[in-house]
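Dear colleagues,

I hope this message finds you well. In preparation for our joint manuscript, I am sending the RRM domain-containing protein (Musa troglodytarum) sequence together with its predicted structure, so that both groups work from identical material. I would be grateful if you could confirm receipt.
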Amino acid sequence: MGAKAKKALKKKLKKTSSSQLSISRSRNESSDFLPLEGGPGMKITQEEDEPIKNMATVLYIGHIPHGFYEEQMEGFFKQFGKIKRLRIARNRKTGKSKHYGFLEFENPEVAKVVADEIHNYLLFEHNLQIHLIPPERVHPKLWRGVNWRYKPLNWTEIARKQHNKDRTVEEQQQMIRGIQKRDKKRRNRIKAAGIDYECPDLIGLVQPAAKKIKFDEEDDE
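The corresponding C-alpha cells are as follows:
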C-alpha cells in the first residue's frame, strides 16, 4: 500500500471511531433505563401531563333578576370566599340594571367552584349564568367606576325647569313656530283620515302689539 492509501485509511478510521463515540454518548445520555430484554436504552419522554393551573378570578354573571343588586349579590356570594370587586352593568340614563355583571374573588379556586356549582342556579325565577373569564380576556376598563353608585335623576323636575325657564323674544317665537308646525301636521292627519273636525285655534299664538302710551306734556310755568 502506498503512503496515500495509508493516509486515506487512517482518515476513515478516525471518522468511524468519532461517529461511534458520538453514538455511544448519545445513547448513554438518552438511556434513562435499560429494558429487561436488553438492547439500547430508551429515554423517558417527560410530557406535560400536568393540567394547567386555573388563575381566573373574574366571573361573568348573567340573567340577574330584578332586586338582586350590589348589596344582595355581595351578601350571597361572600359565603363562598372573599370578594375583591363587584360591578353590575347599569343604564347611564336611567340607572336601571342591565341584568348582567362581573364578580372577582381573591382565590381562583373559589371562583372555579362558584362557576361550577352556582351555574344555572334558580333565583327569583331566573337561572343565573356564571362563567369564568380568562385573565387575558379581562378588559382593562372592566372595573371602571366600580365604586360609583348611580343616583337617579328627577326628570319631572328637569322638564319643569326647562319649561318654565326665562326665554328671550327669539326663543319664544321659535317655540311658537314649533307649536304651529306640530298643530298643522295634526290637522293634516285628521283631514287625511276623513274626519270632519275643526280643530280649535291655539290660544296665545297671536301676541298683541305693544301699546304706546303718550303722556301729556305739562307746560312749565
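For the figure legend, we might mention the following. The beta strands are 58-62, 83-90, 97-105, 121-123, 126-133. The two ends are 163 Å apart (CA to CA).

With kind regards,
E.M.
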